[in-house]
Amino acid sequence: MRYLGGKLAAMASRASNDLSFTSVLRSKARRPLVVALGAPREVATLLSELNQAAATCYQLDLFQARRLRGELAERQVSAQVVTGGDLWDLAADFQTVVFPVAEKGERELKIDVVEQAFHILRPGGRFVVLSPHGNDQLFPVHMKKVWERPRRRHQVTFHARIGDGPSLCFVSRPGVFAYGRFDDGARALVETMRVDPGDRIVDIGCGCGTNGIFAALHAGATGGVTFVDSNLRALALAEHNARLNEVGAFQCAASADLQGLPERSFDVALANPPYYAQTSISHLFITRARALLRPGGRLYLVTKQADQVGPLVAENFGPAEVVERRGYVILCAERPA
Ligand SMILES: C[S@@+](CC[C@H](N)C(=O)[O-])C[C@H]1O[C@@H](n2cnc3c(N)ncnc32)[C@H](O)[C@@H]1O
Fold first, then answer.
1. Which residue, judged by its Cα, is nearest atom 14 of ligand 1?
2. Cβ < 6 Å from ligand 1: which residues?
3. Which residues of 53-72 are buried (b: 16+ CB within 10 A; e: fewer)?
4. Closest Cα to atom 12 of ligand 1
């Protein structure tokens, strides 16, 4: 245990046996309590074991939040699930913040949570990290650094250009793909896509918005882009970056199922689906792209899993053109009538 600027922090390790772990945590947890991020099943199990029905659970991503609500309902735990791009936007009124750290989580996101948790605790409040590693070195160092430090937003700005086009500027943040750089797959996608003046573009799973912003600048003043993502921090960044790069017409839609957008209304759909969850997210992106595109509208999807994703595109769009670039495959297909 260590003290941070008058706030008490503790580390408990899930490497130890579960019973002692739960009892350690029970002795630290005071209400009101918030669980910051964490895998849905693990968070629900934890709250049910701690008997913390009145807790708040914070999630960055609508898909994870929906899964968590399901897991809580299954265990009849009535905790509230809130979503947002920043933990520190919650009221600074908690006695305990519990952070169940993902086994392979992003280092920068972990540090970001430590910093943000500090700002939602009452004076004397407690920050508890549940680390999957018995001898976690990251948190003790960063907990100390938080001591009385003013709010500091972790962000990295990067520049990217396509060919001899203009150099664009993008702000990225931990927890949003791709942090601090223009992803190679995204670059391959943008280099391959055809966007005409006046095109209406939907950037599905937009991350910080790079692809849609390049596309919107091609589409010009008569075109426009709609950014969609389930990650609320990603969407906030896409909005910020669209303004930064003077995109004229854009919209942002927070969604985990890609519903609620006008169907048959877009000329171009862009997608760089994640590789986790097997191909279920690719499948969602492809079926919704088909619904959102007008007949004759074009899908550009980049992947390293062409063997699995190619058949899904073929099923929904018919034969696709296959472009290999930068170690990726870009599937280009037209929506049939
Ligand atoms: C590999 S990243 C691509 C980000 C960006 N388009 C790029 O190319 O750099 C995939 C994005 O899909 C989003 N995503 C994953 N599942 C989603 C879902 N069910 N609904 C909406 N977006 C989702 C993630 O939050 C992430 O931003």
1. 205
2. 63, 177-178, 183, 186, 205-207, 210-211, 228-231, 234, 255-256, 258, 272, 274, 281, 284
3. eebbbbbbbbbbbbbbbebb
4. 205
Q: Of ligand 1's atoms, which has the minimum distance to the CA of residue 189?
A: 8
Among 118, 65, 68, residue whose Cα is nearest residue 96: 118
Amino acid at 198: G
Q: How far is the CA of 32 from the centre of ligand 1 (A)?
A: 33
Could you read off the pLDDT tens digit of each residue along the chain, which spans 337 residues?
233 333 334 554 444 445 566 777 788 788 999 999 999 999 999 999 888 778 999 999 999 999 999 999 999 999 999 999 999 999 989 999 999 998 888 999 999 999 899 899 998 899 988 888 877 888 877 777 776 566 778 999 999 999 999 999 999 999 999 999 999 999 999 999 999 999 999 999 999 999 999 999 999 999 999 999 999 999 999 999 999 999 999 999 999 999 999 999 999 999 999 998 789 999 999 999 999 999 999 999 999 999 999 999 999 999 999 999 999 999 999 999 9
Domains and CATH numbers, the chain: 2-145 (3.40.50.150), 156-334 (3.40.50.150)
Strand partners, 14: none
What is the CA(273)–ligand 1 centre distance, in A? Answer: 6
Q: How far is the CA of 7 from the centre of ligand 1 (A)?
A: 36
What are phi and psi for residue 11, nearest 5 degrees? -120, 130
Q: State both tokens at 54.
A: 């009145």
| For ligand 1, atom 8: residue with the closest CA | 186
